Automatic annotation (TrEMBL):
Binding positions (IMP): D79, E80, G81, K82, N104, A105, G106, H107, T196, R210, Q290, T305, R369
Cofactor dependency: Mg(2+)
Residues the record marks as active site: D79, H107, K207
Protein name in UniProt: Adenylosuccinate synthetase, chloroplastic
Keyword Ubl conjugation listed: no
Protein's UniProt keywords contain GTP-binding: yes
PANTHER family, per database record: ADENYLOSUCCINATE SYNTHETASE
Alphabetized GO MF terms: adenylosuccinate synthase activity; GTP binding; magnesium ion binding
Gene giving rise to this polypeptide: PURA
Residues binding GTP: G78, D79, E80, G81, K82, G83, K84, G106, H107, T108, R371, G451, V452, G453
Natural source organism: Senna tora
Assembly with partners or alone: Homodimer.
UniProt remark on cofactor binding: Binds 1 Mg(2+) ion per subunit.
Length: 462
């Protein structure tokens, strides 16, 4: 990421410290120091940001000053806490839009009463009743999962009617894509990718080889059966364990006839909607799924997702010009976790990693799988070296090389007290303050906000 202008630390302590921070960049416009935070643990009952001192007012002012089109992206391997940040910022935006990925994203947020919501396709702005939620053309949509998610929100009193738009260009992810995902992983045996098995990769594969089915195809049920037959036949030819016959096609077609009727009010030309909103000076917040280290081009390939969760995916996934994108807030958890396979130089495979996983509840929102965790001490990775001791200057594409890198750590003193109720920076333990200030020195950007819990008020303004 370039032109980093500020970041946010997110600490939480059980018997050790749990932390995350966020970078904020402004790739196309002049620099502006803005950042916000996210976290998961103790639920707060307050729905309003405290305005008891000038630092809080400054923080709110910074939020209001975010550019017309801003983005929230993960900078590691996902699970950084993007959902809470989007929920906080959504109160200051007209539209929240997803631009890539699918139901492999898992964003956990809490409402004002502390009720928990786990979202996978619906943008995290849905709890803010004045926010329009857009699922863009770059997203792959599993309709059974989407309807289940909408029904769950409605059952908890969250109205979705007229508040969700789905791109007519978005590709449909079918149940068979999920079956194929599992068959593909089984084929790879010990070299498996470690996907969520939500069918994301197979669906994007259908899109890229140009036999995919888009949302707009639901308007033409006369040709839909033929297109679906081609997709299913292709899967049957590729995987001998995929059983396909006339009954499956007939059942799927009937099911999608019902889906088409229910989905109709949600379908829109979201490219037009987004660009009209930009012309009308409405504020748009883009919510990324997954994270940069899972990017199909820039991540730890092949242990990556099938889309572009980095900044470039915003433009292609929504159909908007690069020049309109302003502030990008990159979310980073201060101890790194990842789900699935692939190199992880700082991973802790011992007791401390297990302690961190259970105390920090490091289990994937989408799959429930345990996240792989790094060391629980306050260790800052400050540089990387080749096996022969030569410093490395850029992130390597060679995974064998990445797996062999040596990490230079700087160890800082920790703290064991609960900081979840602290709201003033000066009241943090001195060790926590030293940690925050050392990050500022190393990264070269200021920290403005520190998160201490998942609630909307669980922020320290620095």
């Amino acid at each position: 990421m370039s032109s980093i202008s500020s970041l946010t630390v997110d600490p939480y302590t059980v018997s050790f410290s749990r932390r995350a921070f966020e970078f904020h960049t402004r790739p196309f416009l002049p620099r502006r120091s803005v950042a916000l935070c996210s976290a998961k643990p103790l639920v707060s009952s307050s729905s309003e940001l405290t305005v008891s001192d000038s630092s809080t007012l400054d923080g709110l002012s910074r939020i209001e000053s975010l550019s017309q089109v801003s983005g929230v992206l993960g900078c590691q391997w996902g699970d950084e806490g993007k959902g809470k940040l989007v929920d906080i910022l959504a109160q200051h935006f007209d539209i929240v839009a997803r631009c890539q990925g699918g139901a492999n994203a898992g964003h956990t947020i809490y409402n004002a009463e502390g009720k928990k919501f786990a979202l996978h396709l619906v943008p995290s702005g849905i709890l803010n009743e004045d926010t329009l939620c857009v699922i863009g053309n770059g997203v792959v949509v599993h309709l059974p999962g989407l309807f289940k998610e909408i029904d769950g929100l409605e059952s908890k009193g969250i109205s979705c009617k007229g508040r969700i738009l789905i791109s007519d260009r978005a590709h449909l992810l079918f149940d068979f894509h999920q079956v194929v995902d599992g068959l593909r992983e089984a084929e790879l045996a010990k070299s498996f990718i470690g996907t969520t098995r939500r069918g994301i990769g197979p669906c994007y594969s259908s899109k890229v080889i140009r036999n995919g089915i888009r949302v707009s195809d639901l308007k033409h049920m006369d040709t839909f059966p033929h297109k679906l037959d081609l997709l299913l036949s292709d899967a049957a030819l590729r995987f001998k364990d995929f059983n396909y016959g006339p009954d499956m096609l007939r059942e799927e077609v009937e099911k999608y006839k019902r889906f088409a009727e229910r989905l109709e009010p949600f379908i829109a030309d979201t490219v037009h909607v987004m660009n009209e909103a930009i012309t009308q000076k409405k504020k748009i917040l883009v919510e990324g799924g997954q994270a940069t280290m899972l990017d199909i081009d820039f991540g730890t390939y092949p242990f990556v997702t099938s889309s572009s969760p980095s900044a470039g995916g915003i433009c292609t996934g929504l159909g908007i010009a690069p020049r309109v994108v302003g502030d990008i807030i990159g979310v980073v958890k201060a101890y790194t976790t990842r789900v699935g396979s692939g190199p992880f130089p700082t991973e802790d495979l011992g007791q401390e990693g297990d302690l961190l996983r259970f105390a920090g509840q490091e289990f994937g929102t989408t799959t429930g799988r345990p996240r792989r965790c790094e060391f629980t001490e306050i260790q800052l990775g400050v540089s990387y070296k080749y096996v022969d001791g030569t410093p490395i200057k850029s992130f390597p594409s060679d995974l064998r090389l990445l797996d062999q890198l040596k990490v230079d750590y700087e160890v800082l003193p920790g703290w064991k007290c609960d900081i979840s109720s602290i709201r003033n920076y000066s009241e943090l333990p001195r060790a926590a303050q030293q940690y925050v200030e050392r990050i500022e020195e190393l990264v070269g950007v200021p920290i403005h906000y520190i998160g201490v819990g998942p609630g909307r008020d669980a922020l320290i303004y620095k």
